[in-house]
Amino acid sequence: MGRIFDWIDARFRVKKPHGGFLQRSLPGKVSYWYCLGGVAFTLFLTLLLSGLLLSFYYVPSGDEAFQSILRITREVRFGRFIRSLHRWSAHLLIIFILLHTVRVVVHGAYRPPRELNWLAGVGTLVVAFGSGFTGYLLPWDQKAYWATVVGTSMAGTVPVIGKTLLYLLRGGPDVDGTTLVRFYSLHVLWFPLIMSLLLWAHFHMVKRQGISGGL
Q1: Are 205 and 114 in contact (CB under 8 A)?
Q2: CA 76, CA 64: separation in Å to the nearest integer?
Q3: Among 179, 126, 186, CA closest to 152
Q4: Cα separation of 201 and 53, whole Å?
Q5: Residue 35 · residue 96 · CB < 8 Å
Q6: Fewer Cβ neighbours under 10 Å: the N or C end of the chain?
Q7: Which residues have CB under 8 Å from 35's CB, separation 6+?
Q8: What is the pTM of this model?
Q9: Poorest-confidence range of 29-38, 72-81, 144-153?
Q10: Are the C-beta atoms of residues 194 and 124 closer than 8 Å to each other?
Q11: CA–CA distance, 137 with 62 (Å, rounded to integer)
Q12: What is the pLDDT of residue 67?
């Protein structure tokens, strides 16, 4: 990787103008525990790439969604692998964000002046859960359907705004094709965009404030 980066730098000269980003001093206590956020970011990039590939064949329609999943799994070359990669990366993303959160709490890295960075990190966890929930419906099978019915019904129990929230999620009183399209939009457009903005803010603050050396 070093040779590849040197080859790129010899042609594009990225080291000198971006030295403040590429070369930073690190606290003495940095260990592999500090790599958990980087692993989570790598998983996010894997989700973006695999999701883009799956979007070539997936059809967000109540009549065709399930059949398109079958085509991806059974007929598309490497389709089963890409779908499995996407699914497991989603599970691992949440696990590594949680582990990263535990590391931040243990080391007290949420304290001032890093409280806004902490909020950005918590936001990424919330968005990751939301993305997982919306993506669960996309196979459009019985398990996905009834899990979404239960999950959205829980939102409907919120005092005062429950019914409005239920209709907002489902696009109507029931889970149907409208819900599928709405969840697909959230899953492939809104949540990745929000996650990208939160990650940009997160990394920007890490760059400005430096890496916490722990307790």
Answers
A1: yes
A2: 16
A3: 179
A4: 27
A5: no
A6: N
A7: none
A8: 0.87
A9: 29-38
A10: no
A11: 11
A12: 97
Identity (one letter) of the amino acid at 196? S
Can you tell me the distance from the alpha carbon of 177 to that of 60, in angstroms, rounded to the nearest whole number? Answer: 8
Token digits for 203? 């990394």
Distance CA 45, CA 118 (A): 21
Read off the tokens for 120.
């950005």
Q: Which of 49, 120, 132 is nearest to 93 (CA)?
A: 132
The full DSSP string for 30-58 is: --GGGGHHHHHHHHHHHHHHHHHHHHTT-
Cα(163)–Cα(157) distance, integer angstroms: 8
Tens digits of per-residue pLDDT, 58-117? 999 999 999 999 999 999 999 999 999 999 999 999 999 999 999 999 988 888 888 999
Query: Per residue, what are the HEC states of 88-127?
Result: HHHHHHHHHHHHHHHHHHHCCCCCCCCHHHHHHHHHHHHH
Question: Position of tokens 């705004």?
Answer: 161
**Domains of the chain listed by start with CATH number:** 31-208 (1.20.810.10)
Q: In the block, which residue shows the tokens 């019915």? A: 149
Residue 136 and residue 144 in contact, taking contact as beta carbons nearer than 8 Å: yes
Could you please report the per-residue DSSP string of 163-183?
Answer: HHHHHHHHSSSS-SHHHHHHH
Q: What Å distances lie between residue 56 and 20, 60, 80, 105, 191, CA to CA?
A: 39, 11, 14, 40, 19
